[in-house]
Amino acid sequence: MEEFTLLPDLASRLYGGGVVFTNDEFFAAADHLVDPATPVFAPHTFGHKGQVYDGWETRRRREPGHDEAIIRLGAPGVVHGIDIDTAFFTGNYPPYASVDGCAFDGYPDALQLAHAPWVPLVPRSPLAGDSQNLFAVDSRQRYTHIRLTIYPDGGVARLRVHGEVVPDPRLLPSVFDVAAAEHGARIAGCSNMFYGHPQNMLNPGLARSMGDGWETARRRDDANDWVLVQLAAPAVIELAELDTSHFKGNAPGSATLRGIDTRTGLLDDPDDWFELLPQVRLSPDTRHRFPIPVVPVATHVRLDIFPDGGMARLHLYGRPDGPALRARYEATT
Fold first, then answer.
1. Helices (DSSP H) in the chain: which residue ranges?
2. How many domains are contained in the chain?
3. Helix or strand or coil: residue 61?
4. 69, 161, 197, 263: least surrounded by Cβ within 10 Å?
């Protein structure tokens, strides 16, 4: 598996991604492309238009041409890789596909996007059926929309656009969740993710189940588990929310939060870290909120849980460094 697949899916419905145009979706709706759920398939399940597929499927072409779908990224950003997933499409997948990107302010309609300056991200490339077709992308430009073109027709289950979130600072409030993936925060390290990836903690909204969070294996030693979050921007943290929703018999007993500014300190130097939240007891299946006293600016926050267990969400509300946010945005536009 390519390393870029560990990055957030910028196109996911989870972040608000959506299909704004397709020229054909006769057999199955293009909206399936941005569904965050893993594709499923029930053989011999037929509707009025044939076998039901969990994906986008166009009719068989009887004339030259191609089919396309345009996706608005829920989280605009720099694309590092594309996954054109043809899961369960075997005799009806497209033999080739290409992907382009564009950056557009505001909320363009299909006509405006048709005349946008599209930039090639993945050239016309062969696809395999019933497979994840992974393509690395070498670009440092920020994109808001992606166009998937299939040649000549067929079915694609999911389009995943993995990359770094780069929000427009003009659209952010003065205080926001600087640990949110949709604002550009990401996981920089963790001790264990046996049952669930810590990136889940940074996802928007409430966790839907215990499987929609970070959960570690049971520890059989005297140590504890931890996760390191790179914030969306350097920020002064004012409020922390540690959410153990759905974790009942496996919530951590307690937790701490520490911060560091890596512009002036080193991650491996204990003296450069400062306390955000002392060790506090956690309750199962509970959204805990803790005010944070005035502390220095942090670029990274480390959550330690004792000794192990599961966390549904981590929210860190703070005042970001405005110039740093703008500089990151301008470097990609």
1. 110-114, 322-330
2. 2
3. coil
4. 263
Residue 134 is part of a domain; what is its CATH number? 2.60.120.260
3: tokens are 């390393």
Residues 6+ apart with CB under 8 A from 193: 214, 215, 216
Query: How remote is the C-alpha of 265 from its chain's centroid?
Result: 28
Domain-located, residue 330 = no
**Domain shared by 236 and 208, yes or no:** yes
pTM: 0.92
Q: Which of 17-26, 41-50, 278-287, 317-326 has the lowest mean pLDDT?
A: 41-50
pLDDT digits (tens, 9 = 90+) for 250-282: 999 999 999 999 999 999 999 999 999 999 999
- Structural domain including 271 reads 170-323
State the DSSP code for 307.
S
Neighbours of 180 (CB within 10 A): 24
Residues of the chain with pLDDT > 90, as a percent, come to 93
